[in-house]
Amino acid sequence: MPTLPANALDALLADSPGVIGAILATQAGELRCAVGRVVDREAGAAIAAVISRELTAIGALLGLGELGLASVKAPRAGRLFARQGGAVLAIEVESRQPLGGLEARLRTTPWSQVADAPATGPPTRRTSATRTTRPAPSTTSALIRAVAASAAAGTAQPPPVPAASASQPQPGTGQVFAGDLQELSLPDLLQFLRNSQRTGTLLCTSPAGTGTIQLSRGMIVSAESPGALDQLAGRADATPDEVERARVARIYSVFREMVGWTSGRFAFDPAVPVAGDAPIALSAQSILMQIYQEQDAHGR
Description:
The protein is α+β, with helices and mostly antiparallel strands. It has two domains: 6-140, Dynein light chain 2a, cytoplasmic (Beta-Lactamase, 2-Layer Sandwich); 143-299, no CATH class. Helices cover 33% and strands 22% of the residues. The longest helix has 21 residues, at 41-61. The chain is elongated. The N and C termini lie far apart (63 Å).
């Protein structure tokens, strides 16, 4: 897809003081135009698309409707993310500048037409500022960085993991995001997956081994880990009720083990088949709350 001349985006941002850089992209993350101080234009386009989709999903969960415009103000910079038609826009603004005027312009201007306009002239403005290696302000959460990194990587393979047993789900090809457990803990990951009602498999690796948690619309339906409890080991005559109780107990034992993993890697993959409908789908927050209560009681 051809990119646009930089003056199309420049015109949209005219008379908006303090703009550091801006990226215009399609909702699929394809770069259309970039101006100002943008370290990596292609990755920035993917980031803008991913953040737009995630904020839209969160807005829907909160009953706010589809995202039109969202702004974040931090000590080092302000950022605006906008979505209109088939286009997304990410703008970074100096921290001392108010965002209200720019927000009003984006709400009242049909700027998605800029993305639909035919390309003429040079693809993007290449200035010394554009080529700078200064890192962007780190106002984005570890989760968004993980999502964005995977989106920018395109067809990148999941992180290497130790060999899994045949009973464990294998990583598929639809990985959505991956990252380090040091930056994003298991409880935070599970809260995000629950809030966004994700279905798929969360695979975590640590020095202790590999663990998997399967989710259906954000709820836990199955889990495996190296030290998972098996109440029905060696039994072939268990009743359906006993099987269900054993499944729930196994999930709790997996959480007790994996909640202590503070180093390693994680990857979420919606392409891995999820176990069939379980009689009971568990809330990760309820499981963790019980585990924390147990830990408090043992610590007294």
